[in-house]
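Workshop exercise sheet. Pairs work together: one partner reads the sequence aloud, the other fills in the structure field after running the prediction. Swap roles for the next sheet.
Pair: D.N. / O.F.
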Amino acid sequence: MSVLSGVDPTTISPDELRAVHFIGIGGVGMSGIARILLARGAKVSGSDAREWPALDALRALGATVHVGHSADNLGGADTVVYSSAIKPGNPELDAAKERGLRLLHRSEALVALMTGRRVIAISGTNGKTTTTSMITTVLQHAGKDPSFAIGGDLSEAGSNAHHGTGEFFVAEADESDRSFLLYAPEVAVVTNVEADHLDTYGTLEAIEEAFVDFAKRIVPGGFLVACADDPGARRLADSARSIGVTVYTYGEAADADLRMLDLTSTASGAYYRAILDGDDTGLVRLPVPGRHIALNSAAAVLVAARLGVSVDNAIAGLESYGGVRRRFELKGTVGGIRIYDDYAYHPTSMSAQLRTVRDVAGSNQLIVVFQPYRFSRTAAFQDGIAAALALADEVIVMEVYGPGEQRGPGEGGIALHAAINLPEHRKVFVPSWSDVPAEVARRARPGDVVVTMGAPPIAMMADEILLALQPAGRELG
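Structure field:
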């Protein structure tokens, strides 16, 4: 087992955490755990480097939240939770060590909250947030009231986490820092296995080995659900079977346990016919577009079926699925120009999403505003990112968001801009955040679709673009 703090988190009950302080409480994973603890009646405090919308929501729930890091922020905390972004030298982390407080990595705190629940852990290079949210939606529709922790806000719930009354706990399991190896799930779902987070793993082979270790963490009587259409997930399925793990697969592949037939995606949604164990179980209709979204929904149907939820109930739940914030989220319309925001920053997820957006844009222009994430990974995946961006009609490349990194020679947004195979007049490098909205306003015309894409903080850009479009006599819709 990988234990970060030196304490096995599966042996800690939530009540033992007592007063909990979060360093970096505004992060999507950290805020979700804080929400669950607040719902359980725990005393929660936290800090973040700057003000985020999530902080006001936590304050409203009863948390004490500070902007800026200081040892004084710890107050009377008994347990301190930190993420992989918090490094030695942080005054709160250092003070917690000096005081001998219980220190838990974010993933360890989440494991402690899972005590006594049947855990469904979803991982994969891409698609885990959507798949986690779909499984949660299906179980909610079936009346199971699961607890959940997701890497994005469910549109219906408006939240990324919930303390449920039911027996299930659905969680997105992060492979980026190996923390997914802390979980002991009854059900493990793997959407795909590709090269990513090479600063942690070094090679694709090491990533694949880590996913095999994840499968080994499944408790007796549990099972693995893997995508039959993804080569890496298929190799994982074969390896898991060889060590005695029960495996079920989904996808368009002919040998999948849940096979998707006649998969179709349009601007208004996606649909396919689900064949489970050879039986036609009916048409699955999704109100959101994208073949990759439909693929994730098949995992949700299969998990639900193997847990005893009727397929009809699962399909009905998916028909009401409203999506996840920052996953092709419509931010607004001005003068017929639609502005969307999307989290994708890996080449595979970017390509899948932009193909979907092409359907939505139709004969109109697709304009992408992309902020690369981290200099090292942008350099490693530059060709794939550039190829994905070339699916757009116009591309605005921002400078890389690389917290704590130093840009190397020839790296950064300007290098990515040069690699995009589009005519010069259809692509531009805009290093200044404040100049981007005006650039979009200069290029966009009624009917066009604009997508802001990448990891935070690009999520805040869509609102500024909407404002920039209004002076031209356009009204917000």
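Discussion prompt: The chain has 16 helices and 21 strands. What would you look at next?
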